[in-house]
Amino acid sequence: MDVLARLSSNMKSMERELQCPVCKDIVKQPVVLPCLHSVCLLCASEVLVQSGYPQPELPPEPNSPASTPNTRSPRQARRPMPKADRIDRALRPGFGTYPGRRRKEGPTQLMLFPCVPCGRDVELGERGLVDCMRNLTLERIVERYRHTVSLGSVAVMCQFCKPPQALEATKGCADCRASFCNECFKLYHPWGTPRAQHEHVQPTLNFRPKVLTCPEHDQEKLQFYCKSCQRLLCSLCKLRRVHTGHKIVPVTQAYQALKDKITKELNYILSNQGTVLTQITQLENAITQTEVNSVGAREQLAQCVRELMALLSERQAMLAQGLESSRQKRSEALANQVAERRSLLEHAGLMAFTQELLKETDAACFVHAARQTHNRLAQSIESLQSFSLSADPSFRHFQLDVSRELKLLTDLNFIQAPLAPVIDTQRTLAYDQLFLCWRLPQESSPAWHFSVEYRRRGVVPGGGARGGIRGGLAGARWGWQRLEEVSGTSAVIDRLEMDSVYVLRVRGCNKAGFGEYSEEVYLHTPPAPVLNFYLDSRWGLHADRLVVSKEQRCARSVPGLSLLQAADRALTSCHLTADLLVGDVAVTQGRHYWACSVEPGSYLVKVGVGLESKLQEWFHLPQDMASPRYDPDSGHDSGAEDSSDSPPSFTFLTMGMGKIYLPPSANSHHGTANHRDGGITNGNGPSSPTGVTYPLPPRLGVCLDVEKGRVTFYDAHSLRPLWEGPVDCSAPVCPAFCFIGGGALQLQELVANRNADQTPVRRVTIQSRVTKLN
Hints:
Immunoglobulin-like, eight-stranded antiparallel beta sheet, Znf_RING, 34 strands, seven-stranded antiparallel beta sheet, flat, alpha+beta
């Protein structure tokens, strides 16, 4: 019984592979669509007609017992037409909504077939189903399947014997595509005629043509296969211009390659049947757990609703009690006021007593007893003249405003996982460490914590980025590494590879589980270790126009009186007012990187490096100094006029008014400096004899290579090289900044110092610089 049940299950599973996706029955005369799905030829034509295309010309059905009424099985006694509802489902909104032209409108230019398995429209081309070849292999598999389900071989009867004397067929003719008994075969294939040369085969229910022929070129064999188009070609199709440059191989080679691939894939699956069974068991367990957990979730839902209803009932009782207490107090107050008014009636209460009091004739006794009555009457008259209810009967302030609660109940839903966070690209950066900042969308559910994942771009298995992270690390040495349970909306990742691109993403987590990942962001780490320094304002500082922040990481230059006083000489000489700021660190070896930002509204700001001694010599001058450009033989600000073969003593890039000036390229690789910054642009901008200008980047990066004597300027946001040039590194070199006119500059703060409570103690990273004030 188990064997039969397993066999039946396998047969049903096999039958699903042989079903037409339109009529849901075993395929008959299947054709292969361009999407590689097979569908009955009759079903395909009906779908196209329903879509508004003309009725296609169908080839005649094969004259085989498999398609004749007297020999086909009882279950296949009558071929049903595709049901209208199934065709309608195939043409449901979403695909199949492009009707073709009617017959009166001429030939169809483009046919679209709504493929049910794909869920989209498939282009059939101008010729429609004519270009779709029969799937003869599938037909043969269907024939073998029908033999199997019949539990034995089905007798193939002669198609030319007249019933009921039909005999069993003994031969089949591949050219006539029919099965014959011995007598009929001799009758229809007489000796000495061309029919006698027909190829005879075993009787069968499905005759395949000897070779597949091209649907466009009659009798042309399909001998080639185009890998680019993934279709069979004949020798004439191969010569078409559309296949120029395509990789075309003989069909035998494509057959062997595809057969080998399928064989390997089949063997792999068959050799991993244990894995398949394990996964089936896991899926079945998952289905069971789904049912169990759904029952638990339904019970929890009912419990939550019961708790809400109980809370509402409790709250209703409390509010009703308060309402009843107020009603009683108001009713008592109004009832007392009614009793007072009734006592003022003519024959009741106070009025009757007063009338009896007026009958008293003894003056002393009357005065003694009437004073209290007089007071009561005066109060009653005042009450009559200023009548008002002692209690408000409206109960207006006892109305409930449940609009907010109704909205909450309307929005009541199951817990949703957080939506994909949005990376804040303005605050996210790579400097001494990676700093990642994000936020949740406004409509997102709150997150308990976040998971930050990152990897080095281009890492191969076993070659992951080394280093650690701040927080718990869960991950392999290659691939994605993870920061688990990150609280807040920012994270810091340190100890990363220099000059590398890292991919980062983040997702939130709450009671419902993890949400979707954010979009991946790419951060380029600096090309060298970050040099941390502060501004040293002891050179050229003029308090009236240059201000350095308390943290000594920001400087602002404001044109003062000295600049106005020098303005009267602007027409007769070339005098400038410049202020120099240098870093409190000088380096003598290694590679170092730092970044800064220049205010776009600055007039002129120069950023670069230079020899400490030369900078002191050239810039430690009075306020009004002659510009080096004033000398006819100068032409640059590098200080290398004495020797054209020696590298310049200092190198600057000039920024101002929202632009950055990149000097013209020079033969800087050979140590010459014909211009102020004497360098190359590395192909990032067009070469010009006068240099070029670009929009000022948000942050400017500077990389100094002491051993090579080179300095490179970067767009610090994207780490794109802007310009490169030489610099003399024979002595200590320090960062330098020069202000001409108004401007502001901000050093990039270290990521490690972002959360520091106070400014760290100033330290010398490489070598302390001894400042000579004299």
